[in-house]
Amino acid sequence: MDEFDFINKITPKKRNHPNIKMGIGDDAAIYRPDSEKDQVVCVDTMVEGVHFLKHLSTPYEIGYKALAVNISDIAAMGGVPLYYLVAISIPNTWKESELIDIFQGMNEIASHYNMSLIGGDTVSTSKDLVVTVTVIGEVEQNVRTLRSEAEDGDIVFVTGTVGDSSAGLDILLGKYVIDDASIKEYLIERHKRPTPQVKAGRIISSVKRASLNDISDGLASELHEIAESSRVGIMINEEDLPISQELSQIKQTCDITKWMFYGGEDFELVGTTSPESWEQLKRLCNEQSIKITKIGYVSKKYTGVFLMKNDKDGEPLHKSGFNHFKK
Amino acid sequence: MDEFDFINKITPKKRNHPNIKMGIGDDAAIYRPDSEKDQVVCVDTMVEGVHFLKHLSTPYEIGYKALAVNISDIAAMGGVPLYYLVAISIPNTWKESELIDIFQGMNEIASHYNMSLIGGDTVSTSKDLVVTVTVIGEVEQNVRTLRSEAEDGDIVFVTGTVGDSSAGLDILLGKYVIDDASIKEYLIERHKRPTPQVKAGRIISSVKRASLNDISDGLASELHEIAESSRVGIMINEEDLPISQELSQIKQTCDITKWMFYGGEDFELVGTTSPESWEQLKRLCNEQSIKITKIGYVSKKYTGVFLMKNDKDGEPLHKSGFNHFKK
Q: Which of A222, A240, B136, B211 is such that its CA lies 20 to 30 A from the CA of B228?
């Protein structure tokens, strides 16, 4: 494979943003920032055999997800994703057509958000494919949906539903067997093609104050991060956790709690805000048809995260999260 | 190794930039851009066994170079490097202390340029360590030291000296044997700890127009990129190429041409500018004690890169560059 020829094939033919002064094709990219905004930037890596298995995901799906997980981080900061750069380490077990599919998968989700590929690096490696994506976005100045923003008396909320992605992974790995084809397809799709909650993040960042995380490592782990950063206790009502119709239909046959709390990769948003802002948030999300659910409250009388069942006293919820394909 | 504990160890204890609103510790970093500047961003990956060999470089040196090569890309755009993010894929053959050394090597060169680590990702992999660094910097609006800026009649220049890094690599690999300890040490140091030419890049970007590349893949390859992007021919006088005293002392005993043109990783800057701007550039560099040398000229009568020896007609200089440790 010729590196220059490959780069030419994956370089976007049109640029979406007039602010891009130099995209792919020089030593670095140059763009003009919105002078009224702050810049938001994150990087995430996916490794073959750790974050994905080649026989279970298509290259297109791998690319889609590699960019999606980064967009989700921007969403958790209340930002708008704009640009991305891709560094890819390629073993000779991957064909050029598969690599182009990875970039096409990224291009699909990028186009949903009007994002542009502006740079990258293509190198060889001996064994596992590694894809590292950097995403840059913008957010209004002084908007800070940080983990450390939770306060006593806050409402704890989550967008969408939780547990689907982890259920989908267990189905893929053969750890959970299911006959219903449409439920199976839905759950696997939720694992392979997560939807970053950019619109929800924008709404949440518009209220007076909110703490926020995206659910990458598992709901329990994300709640612990908020509790620790904010030095508060978080009380969760298990029966309030929003689950999909599909998960609801199979919940008698499996350990749904594990998927909901420790599965991870739902890429929904979890956070807290004051009771007054929560009323505003519910209304704004409702107007945009975004599902958002109250699942608990914040108390500074405790530290840590507690699970309350049937309104009984809470039990500590341990935080160990998602460990990908590791034993 | 505990990921959270490790991140805590490598997180800078003080932040250099008041513009960093959120560094490591949330879903993404947030910084305030200079509203008068454009943003410059690049990403480069170094893979164990391809870009470095563990038995020939210390972890500290690997970290130093991983960041240096990215700073060099910002320098080639005339920019000032400000922030960096590090994604690292770690096999279990690496100890935590070695990983901390990688970050300390990066921290050393970062401190030279007053740069801050603002984010990253730490994941596991099965075989080779992969380190991907993203660097963000700023440059004045409308400054464009692009490859495509060369024009007929331009002077071709290069900063510093060329060939040292490649000579150092050949010594490290045992392909070239040298007895003189101080020359040996100098050349290896030039390979392991390249100095990005940020100050020179700033000066070059201050003249009216200049094309510019950093020498990562080899001087011949970089010249070809400028010639192709600008659709011009470049004529190089081989005897004008600046070499170090050290290389000069051993040039009778080795193929110095190969090192100068195809070695790569000198991380000097090569470019072109008008004869008028060249006089200004020479003066400005001289004032700052930066070595800059005229090595040829641009002609639109030709396409490609030509090497002239003793003022005779030029021969085409082929472009194949540096292929790291590949056969």
A: B136
ipTM of the complex model = 0.93
Please judge whether B49 and A213 are an interchain contact, meaning their C-beta atoms are less than 8 angstroms apart: no
Beta sheet of A37-47, edge-to-edge order: A116-124, A80-90, A130-140, A37-47, B29-31, B20-22
Pick one of 3.90.650.10, 1.10.760.10, 2.60.40.10, 3.40.1350.10 as the CATH number of A147-316.
Answer: 3.90.650.10
Element (H, E) at A102: helix A96-112
pLDDT above 70 covers a percentage of chain A that reads: 94
The span from the CA of A30 to the CA of A20, in Å, is 6
- pLDDT tens per residue across span A48-85: 999 999 999 999 999 999 999 999 999 999 999 999 99
**pLDDT tens digits, one per residue of B95-134:** 999 999 999 999 999 999 999 999 999 999 989 999 999 9
The type of residue at B209 is: R
Nearest to A3 by CA among A110, A126, A88: A88
Has A266 been labeled as part of a binding site?
A: no
How many inter-chain contacts (A to B, CB under 8 Å) are there?
204
For A267, which residue in chain B has the nearest alpha carbon?
A: B27
Tell me the angle at which helices B59-76 and B96-112 cross, rounded to the nearest 10 degrees.
30
Mean pLDDT for all residues in chain A: 92
Joined together, the tokens standing for residue A104 give: 């096409």
Residue type, B34: D
**Distance between CA A286 and CA B34 in Å, rounded?**
37
CB A42 to CB B126 under 8 A? no
Residue A32: strand, helix, or coil: coil
Lowest mean pLDDT among A69-78, A171-180, B87-96, B311-320: B311-320
State the pLDDT confidence band at A223, using cuts at 50, 70 and 90. Answer: very high
CATH architecture of B3-140: 2-Layer Sandwich (3.30)
Q: Taking Cα atoms as reference points, which of B90, B14, B53, B84 lies closest to residue B191?
A: B53
